Amino acid sequence: MSTKPQRSRLEEAISKTQLKIRRYEEMTQPIVPDNAIGRVSRMDAINNKSVMEAALRKAQQRLEGLQRHLDQLGSQEFGKCQKCGENIPFARILLAPESSFCVNCARI
């Protein structure tokens, strides 16, 4: 596969991930004490905030991986497993960009 379609797909994935990060950041704003919501509702809101914070961290890791792969595009390091040196399928790079290992090495 030439680098032009790969660049396009990586840039598209980066844009989508940046959009997710902005949404997650909005959803992780501090929970303001409010007498209008009950204690259970407040606890539920705090729990939801924790879930969104975890999703935000995962999206940020994904973005870092996508940007790292985009920077490496066209170089000899692009798509190489850091452990065994084999080629990582491009679909895996898009699926799990935060990993720098092929499926076999990631299992170990």
Question: What this model shows, in words?
Answer:
By secondary structure, the protein is mainly alpha-helical. The protein has a domain at about 5-75. It has 4 helices and no strands. The chain has helices spanning about 5-25, 40-70, 90-95, 105. The protein starts with a helix and ends with a helix. The mean pLDDT is about 90.
The poorly predicted ranges are none
Q: Structural class given helices, strands, pairing?
A: mainly alpha
Number of strands: 0
Measure the end-to-end span.
Answer: 28 Å
Question: What would the principal axes of the Cα set say about the shape?
Answer: elongated
Helices, by number, come to 4
Beta-strand content bin: under 5%
Mean pLDDT: 90
The SSE string, one letter per element, is HHHH
Helix content: 55-70%
Q: Key features?
A:
single chain, mainly alpha, 4 helices
Secondary-structure map:
Blueprint: H1 3-27, H2 39-72, H3 90-95, H4 103-107
How would you summarize what this structure contains?
By secondary structure, the chain is an all-alpha fold. Helix content is 65%, strand content 0%. The chain has a domain at 3-77.
